[in-house]
Amino acid sequence: MSYVNRKPRFPTFGLRLALWYATLFVVGSMVIVFLTYWLTAASLAQRDRQIISSKLGDYASAYQRGGLGALADTVRAEQRTAPERLFVRVVDRGAEALVLSQPEGWDPAALETASLRLRDGTLVQVGKSTDARRDLLARFRAALGIVTLTIVLVALTGGFVVTRSAVLPIRRLTRAVGRIIRTGRTDERVPLSGEGSDDAIDELTTLFNAMLDRIEGLVTAMRGSLDNVSHDLRTPLTRLRGTAEMALASPPDVDRYREALADCVEESDRVLVMLNTLMDISEAESGAMQLHREPLRLSDVVARAVDLYRDVAESKGVVLTAHPPADVVVTADQTRLEQVAANLIDNAVKYTPASGRVDVDVLRQSDRAFLRVRDTGVGIRPDELPRIWDRLFRGDASRAERGLGLGLSLVRAVVEAHGGTVDVTSELGKGSTFTVALPIAPM
Ligand code: ADP
Fold first, then answer.
1. Which domain holds residue 301?
2. Would you tell me how many other CB atoms lie within 10 Å of the CB of residue 6?
3. What spacing in Å lies between the alpha carbon of 366 and ligand 1's midpoint?
């Protein structure tokens, strides 16, 4: 069975799920990390620019107040207190540049500058080294690198753990199903996750187990009826063989042979009826039975079936009465429905002793038609009641009567194939009532 042992395709569902999870997590986190970095860098740059422009304002006003001397004093005074030296240059109209301050080891390329031209044409220029900022950002990048690495690790581990816990119940289900298919043991059940949660997998497991219950029931029923059929076939076939054997062993005599052959035909007929009925039941149950549905007056069907048993009932001393009903039309297969009515009436007459009664009614109730067969016969034992519909089941009390134990199985199968139901109520020693309900033909 290749579908059981099939190796999972690569990458497996679980791995794909884990990768998807990790990728989403990492991408989301990366966006956040980059945004953080970018915002930090931007705000640091802005802070530098603010410092520069505020210093530029200070210096420009000092210059205007007291010329170059005042500016130089301001710059010097500030350099004593400020932690970081700024670059300050003054270029007057004569394009003579004067550098007033310059950070140690300055690199003109790594300088953020701003300048202001005063009213007299002098240009004051202030620059701030970006070294400190770059250094800070470099550290920040290193920190973010570690954070990123952690995120990736967490994502992979998380993805793995989450996926594992999501896939584990599916694996368990798969393994159990595989085991059941391999061993063919329908009494095995898939264990629930045990966490008492009613999640989707547990639901599936429960359904799967319910399906197994049903399959097991069907298989058991099939085995049972196969056993019954084999058992019930053995008797007529053994008799058939015995009759033929005895005829062969006896001295040649045409009359004796004729009699033996007639017996053989009778036994074969019995077997054939049994097999045909069994096949009819199977067909009806599986929905394969060909039904020639047509609108039928239920009372006509009943009348014909009752006619069939009038003589039998009379000779037995049973009063068989069909109560003329209201006009009820059903859409059904005439032959099959007659068979249903005949089987029920046959049983009622068969299991009702002399001076009993059998009453057949046709009733109607909203959208359903009822065919009811009541008898005042021997009744059915409560413990046998649920089993009378089983194939080949025969009640203890009915051993003396002819029959195959297939009549009611066929009745039920045919009625259900017509979309109807059949019920029974019975009281031991008082009688039984069988009721067939069929949907009414739409007008
Ligand atoms: P059978 O060939 O034995 O009549 P059925 O399938 O028609 O087989 O019925 C199964 C069993 O149900 C019978 O053996 C009998 O025990 C019981 N049964 C059916 N109909 C009646 C009835 N009207 N009264 C009493 N018992 C009945």
1. 293-439
2. 9
3. 30
